[in-house]
Amino acid sequence: MRIGLIGTGRIGSFHAGVLSAHPRVDTLVLADTDGARAVDVARRTGASAADSVDELLAWGLDALVIASATSSHAELIARAARLEIPVFCEKPIALDLAGTLAALQEVERAGSVLQLGFMRRFDAGYAAARELVRSGALGRLHTVRAMTSDPAPPPAAYLPLSGGLYRDCLVHDFDILRWVTGREVVEVYATGSDAGPAMFRAAGDIDTAAVVLTLDDGVLATATATRCNGAGYDVRMELAGELDQIAAGLDDRTPLTSAEPQGPPPADKPWPGFLERFAPAYEAELDAFLSVVRGELANPCDGREALHALRIAEACELSRRERRPVRVAEIPTS
Prior knowledge:
Layout: E1 2-6, H1 10-20, E2 27-31, H2 35-45, E3 48-49, H3 53-57, E4 63-66, H4 70-82, E5 87-90, H5 97-110, E6 114-117, H6 124-135, E7 141-149, H7 159-162, H8 165-181, E8 185-193, H9 198-203, E9 208-215, E10 220-226, E11 234-241, E12 245-248, H10 274-293, H11 303-322, E13 326-327
Helix pairs in contact: 1-2, 1-10, 4-5, 5-11, 6-8, 8-11
């Protein structure tokens, strides 16, 4: 297969390594606004580097992977759709609802493939949690607790481009909540704090957030996130039912120390970041995408799935701004 990859930053460089080693990929072509970086990654992975996106799209691609800046996603998705090139795109499709809907309309009009990069769907722990919930092993589910804690804030320049903590970070928790439980979020009540580094206040963003979510079957969920978890990278989900309680993301590298005298010891090597924690999941989602392109697998996370998660994030922004519960139905779908 001939695969194009746009964007050779941290995640793009990782994807380049995975794709260049994949037995189904015969040719990998890279492009980046930073041409020197694309050439360097191509040299290290055995790929080719195109001088521009236009040149890359002219290679007769079987599929395209988009790992560029978020502001470019919607336009690149639309261009690929018009060329009938299947696309894998890192979330989000766009930073706002209008841009997301416009890109989805292009994809649907062309009848092309768009798979979104919600990698937690490919993590072994979350997949096992989904099976346990769906099998009834937990009994009636009543409470879900999800969290994402970054070990350190991103660069200040990233914040105005990120879309904010709900859209950039917690959107993963919103997606995996739907995927694991099989239920829809109907209402949110969100709050946030910008009491951390001053750059968050300067960007109009928050460094810590908490959300209470009500699912359509009455299950109550909480989702929290912070950019300032100095202990390490901590992503978990706890699911409690009438018969049992389980946790995804709890292992010997979870950066959590028990205060109990007989509690487990602290992690010897806590997770430093998302690439280390979810590397197998990133590899699995790209493998799934290549199977989708070949017609061997149904799309495991299409653009409409991303829209559901974004609507929840938009409802959270509205809730925080207006300090009230918000029904997700208030957020338009078209």
